[in-house]
Amino acid sequence: MSSDRRELMTTTEIPSQTSNGHKVAVEKTETAPTEVPTSLSANPALLGYPAFAIGALSLALFLTGFNQTTIPSTLAGGLPIMIVASGLLLIVASIWAIKRNDGVQAAIFGLFGAFWLSFTVLIVGLLDNWFGKLPEPAQRGANANFLLVWFVLMLAMTFATLRLPKAITLLFVLVDFSLITLFSAVSIARPGAGGDPFILHPGIAALFIMPFLGLYLFMSATNAALGGKSFPMGKPFIKR
């Protein structure tokens, strides 16, 4: 008997025309109300991808010095977004995915959330001397090490997503490209510079593309949740 539709068997006494008026037990079938399945609208992507997109856009604006007068004033606008809108909401999306037994989305959103939270700890810690009063070369080295470690992890995640739609894999490719270019720019920059501009600018360009792809994934999930079809995502590189 299916879980979404069940039949209740009841016994009702009704007169029979073939039994001289005697009442006989006849089984009568009644249909129970249809059970409502788990809603397809309960998709962690509805929260995870916009949270990722706004964090990537905020970081890209920070690196370009948009409306920048001093570094602390620029971070005052970007860090709250990275901490709350990106870091915490991505962790919530990861927990949401765990509740739905969706380990892949839980890993994706959880790792992205951990990146934004750890990035804010790094930046604020360096500015406020949480790790000691480090000279400028040591601070650049800390930034470079941070970017390299996350690049290695995200590269592994990129290969792990080859069985997912191409749009998701492309998102990780953009993340990989931005991380390795930012790492290279910081590593070879001259003292006092934020990064080598010839390498830094392509990485920033990738950061500006990521929010649009993240919002595309968000709108696709929203359209599907409202009864429509998902947007084209591309077939996986490796078929299941």
Keywords:
240 residues, mainly alpha, disordered N terminus, two-stranded antiparallel sheet, 2 strands, 2 domains, Gpr1/Fun34/SatP-like, 6 helices
Structural write-up:
- This protein is mainly alpha-helical.
- It folds into 2 domains: about 1-35, no CATH class; about 45-225.
- The protein is built from 6 helices and 2 strands.
- It has a two-stranded antiparallel sheet.
- Helix 4 (about 135-160) packs antiparallel against helix 5 (about 165-190).
- It is globular and about 55 Å long.
- Residues about 1-20, about 25-30 and about 30-40 have low confidence and may be disordered.
Q: Strand order within the widest sheet?
A: 1-2
**Could you tell me the strand content as a percent range?**
5-15%
- C-alpha termini separation: 31 Å
Tell me roughly what share of residues is in helical segments. Answer: 55-70%
Q: How many H/I helices?
A: 6
Number of domains: 2
Classify the secondary structure makeup into a structural class.
Answer: mainly alpha
Low confidence ranges: 1-19, 23-29, 31-38
> How would you sum up the major sheet?
2 strands, antiparallel
What's this entry about, in short?
The chain is mainly alpha-helical.
Q: How are the SSEs placed, and which strands pair?
A:
Elements: E1 7-15, E2 23-31, H1 45-64, H2 71-99, H3 103-127, H4 136-160, H5 166-188, H6 197-225
Antiparallel strand pairs: 1-2
Helix pairs in contact: 1-2, 1-3, 1-6, 2-3, 3-4, 4-5, 5-6
